[in-house]
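Supplementary Text 2. Reproducibility record for the structural model of the 216-residue chain.

All settings were left at their defaults, and a single model was retained for analysis rather than an ensemble. We include the record here because the model underlies the residue-level annotations in Supplementary Table 4.
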Amino acid sequence: MAIRVLIADDHSVVREGLRRFLGRDPELTVVGEAADGAEAVELARQLRPDVVLMDLLMPVMDGIAATSAIRKELPETEVVALTSVLESAAVVGAVRAGAIGYLLKDIQAPELRRAIKAAAAGQVQLTPQASVYLLHEVRTPEATETLTEREREVLRLLVLGRSNKEIGRDLQIAEDTVKTHVKHILAKLGVQSRTQAVLSAMRLRLVSTEQGKQMK
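Retained model, structure tokens:
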């Protein structure tokens, strides 16, 4: 079944361009377009997309506020920030709001299609510079020692960009069990999203530098 995508951008030319090249991929279906953050939230409620491509600078409600509203109401919908802004405050704000990814609009079409599919599978998608900004902001939680060994294994695989399905296959456990472990990891680390959990793990050096570099 095709991945359902909602496009949120206040520029009609950008929306049209995204709709056209995403439409060339049979694995992706654009189900709606929003011209501002408030419309994005309303359409997300109605359409229940798998992924929202969210511009950050929009009228009525900005992309960060819209991301927060969507993630709180629709936790199964992933949000990927797609913006021309690369500033620490914007990156941190988007991830704190629950975005699973932060990409720039100069991204190539094939890479964006790949990133959407990865985000739908629960894989973190960050530009390298966004990762740098976030690592400076991530606090080191004191609760890490309370993670079980299984939770640590799941967290390491999250850092490597594995989806829930892939983690389940690697650890030989059910996908629903993986989701439960992820929920517990977020609670124990005191974070709101998989992205934040991944960055906390990198800050805590639960993975090597080379493994961390594999996160896109």
